[in-house]
Structures are given as structure tokens and as C-alpha cells.
Amino acid sequence: MYIKPKSKKDVLKNIEQLGTQILQELEKGKNPYIEVPVRTLKNIKFDPKTRKLYLGEIISRRYFFHLAQTRKFTQTLGVAALAKELIEINKHLSLREVYYTLKKTIPGTRINVVDEQTESNKAVEDLELIINALREQLHINANKLGAVAGNVVIRDRGDLIDWSKLGSGGWSVPSNVEDIEFVKVNAEFVIYVEKAAVWERLHEDKIWKKLNCVIVASQGQATRGIRRLLQRLHYEHGLPIYVLTDADPWGFYIYSVIKFGSIALAHISDRLAIPKAKFLGLTVDDIEKYGLKKHLIKFKDVDFRRLEQIKNYEWFKNNKKWQEQFKKMKKLGAKAELEALASRGITFISDVYIPEKIKNEDFLD
User: Is 100 considered catalytic here?
Assistant: First the structure.
């Protein structure tokens, strides 16, 4: 098992160890292989003590001299070689750029290392698993998708950035937040919002100033960069994390991913999950409490199916309060959006809803 790298030197050491291992096998006339943890549902476990998803111990071996495995083997090594180069020259590539860099013909053949971006993305994920490193530590980034505002000052690549003085757009959260230094954090908690439009409402209302908090948004499911940023603010600075979503199965799942980790990224839950995160979003009870019944959106079959899936997740199965919510939502057969709170007043969500729920500790855990 490769050590969990904490520095660029550690990442390079793991990559070089992988290359050395393969070279030694070839020199001995053996068929080199790499071991990849299996990422299927049967190998995803939930630890009720830590309240995190994690990857089980099922391992598959991928051999170089194997007709069905050679291509994936080569793609993984291609990513490893590229990551080594990026770290050494201190440059970064997006996932899309990685795809184009690897889409080249293998000498002496008419075969490309990769033909589709799904192949290079998968190879990046495999390398993460193999050498026990985050994609961001390999200097490979995804697209930016998120915004932040609050009384926080950071240092990012030598630049001092004040999250309270960035106009209407806030700070754009990068894919890689590993090297960001927190210079000053003057906040009591963090609100993560699933919708950029709702974040804009909160930002215009300066809720981060009124409640002395940080507001963070994505568009739908939180990106890895945002999840890592939330985790760093929580663990390094002791800030509680509150998740604000719609009252629907999709919003509930967004919360569960931030709290427990995701099935797809169970292998790095310890670097993304926040087990103490609380659900601040709309509940079925809020629909009645805040008079939102006439703004309900009827469930479609896909919503009922998603609700049934979430209800049976191991991390929700024994939670009485969440099971009550699922039961009520199924009976209601409808969902409600955060934007519906605007029917109570333009700034109702900032002036009443959020302050009231936080004051009364009206959270779901």
C-alpha cells in the first residue's frame, strides 16, 4: 500500500515507486501488473462510527500482457508519466487538457492511448486509487464551478484575497484548494448552497456579514474543490457546515455526499466527507410551516424512484428523523424549491428563514 502523500515529494515518490515496480518485473521477464481497488457498490462500505463511506478491500489486478487489460494498463501509466512531469515543472492541466495530451498514437501502431475523455478521466481516477493521492495532488484539475463570500482572507499563489471584497461575483473556487493558505478566518459557520441563484440572493443581502458566516455555492452537486474547501474550513478552523438545498430527493443526496462521502469517491472520503455537517435546507415540515403548499412541484416517476433509493441507503436506513422525512415526502408526492421562499418576501430567506433555523437549531443530522 502506498503512503498517503502529504507533499509533492511524497506524490513523486509514489509515482516513481510504481514505475520502478513495473520496470523490475519486466527485467525479470515477468508479466507486470498494477493493483486497483474495485469501485463497485459491493466494495463500498459505511462505517457507522466515523459516519463515512469507505472503499472495501476487494482488489483487482491489471496485467500488461493481457489482451483485455493492456489498453487500460497503458492509459494509467500514461497519466502517471504526465502527472510526474506536471509536478516537476509545477504546472497544471485540466481534465480536458489531459485528454488531448494523451490522445496520441502509440509508436509503431495505429492505436491511440485514449480515444475518448471518459477513458482518460477513468485512468486519472485509477491512478488516484493506486498511489493513494488526490487528483489535485497530481496537478490535474476540473472546471471551476462555485463562489464564496465571507470575512476570510486567503493567500493563493502569492496573492492575498479578501472574500469580503470581491463584488457581486465573490471568489471563484478553483478545482485545487490544497495549497491555499488561510490568513484570516473571522466567521462562526459556513452555509453551503446547492444553487448559484440562491447564493446570489444571500450575497446581495449580505447574510455573511449579518450572521458572520461564509457562504459557498455550486450548481447542483458540490465539486471536489468545494467539498475539500468546506472540509478544510471545518477541520482546520472549527467552522460548522450547514447545507442548504431544496426539499427533494436530489437535494437530500447533495447533503449526504457532503456529510458521508459519495459512492464514486469513497476512496477519498477521509479528505472530502464532513460527518458533522447539518441539513439546513427545506424539509417537508417547512413546506407547511412557511406556507409553501401552493408552490409545490409534483413528483415524476424518476423522483419517486430516487427517493426510494436514498431511503434505503445504509447511512439513512436507521435514522428515524430522515425516515420520517422520506415517508412524508412520498405521501406528499411533491417537492419544493428554495426559491419558493421568495413568495414570503424578497429577502425572507436571509431575514427570517436561515436566522430562525440556526437560532432554533432546527437541523437534520
Answer: yes
